[in-house]
Design a protein that fits this description.
single chain, mainly alpha, elongated, about 0% strand, about 80 residues
């Protein structure tokens, strides 16, 4: 597993069982890669903050611009 695969699978595997083959491969990679360990820490902090903070109210035009930007960025 390389860093790109690890980053992709870290986000996709948040709900996965900790002992799945994919999670085991990610754990092996994390042992060897400090950059991916930092990335995982960042993802965990982001999720924690997301759960803790209230959802902001967006105007319809702001929401439309946000969704448009996310689609352009390939994140949708």
């Amino acid at each position: 597993m390389n860093c790109r695969q690890a980053h992709k699978h870290i986000c996709e595997s948040l709900d996965e069982k900790i002992d799945s083959p994919r999670c085991k491969a990610i754990k092996r990679h994390l042992k060897e890669c400090p950059n991916c360990r930092h990335y995982l820490t960042s993802v965990k902090k982001t999720v924690k903050l997301y759960k803790k903070l209230p959802c902001p109210d967006l105007s319809a035009s702001s929401r439309k611009r946000l969704y448009s930007a996310l689609k352009i960025g390939g994140l949708s």
